[in-house]
Amino acid sequence: MQRDRGNKRKTIDGSQENCQAPTTVYDYPAAREVLDSNDLLKRTLANEPPNEKGIRGVPKNEWTTPPEIVEASLEVLGVIDIDPCAESKDCPNIPARAHYTIWDNGMSVHWEGRVFLNPPYGNSLARWIAYLRDEYRLGYVREAIVLVPARTDSRWFHYMGSNFIWCGVKGRLRFSEIDGPAPFPSAIFYIGKNRKRFVEIFSRFGPVYDRI
């Protein structure tokens, strides 16, 4: 079944606007500039099969944040300053003040303020968590909400669970990339001082755990 890729997204001021999701890598302006100047990269991406989103050249391990998680994150953070793993700048589903896509490399800048992080779920996931840890220790990140697969057998998950409050999502989230529930469980971590608010809002998704 072909899915209608048109959708609505929430803007910074809380209003709704129609937004057409990109279907090829050329729908990303930054990507067009890179590809037009790099013939080898252009040929490589053209030969790649589309991922779950049907977007050529975009890693298969990216999963668009469900709208209910976006809404809940805004209820806790109030405003999102940075989305370092945005799927698009033209049509982002996270209403952040700044978006960094795979073409920008979100780990090349400081994450100042309130961050929403839904990183790629592949081999680079641990590096994103490590970068978040460092930015928080250095005082750049004030608050953060992190949506990740619940990989309880990984070191990065043990680090997050040992240091920050988190919600174990009951059941499986539904991502726009597939019809039906996700093929993996999810966890949502919170970094910051507004822990009581996180418990109040995210307990609707599942039990909330805190370090002893």
Automatic annotation (TrEMBL):
Signal peptide: none annotated. Pfam families: Dam. GO terms for molecular function: DNA binding; site-specific DNA-methyltransferase (adenine-specific) activity. GO terms for biological process: DNA restriction-modification system. Residues 1-23 are annotated as: Disordered. Residues 13-23 have a biased composition (Polar residues). This is DNA N-6-adenine-methyltransferase. It comes from Methanoplanus limicola DSM 2279. The lineage of its organism: Archaea, Methanobacteriati, Methanobacteriota, Stenosarchaea group, Methanomicrobia.
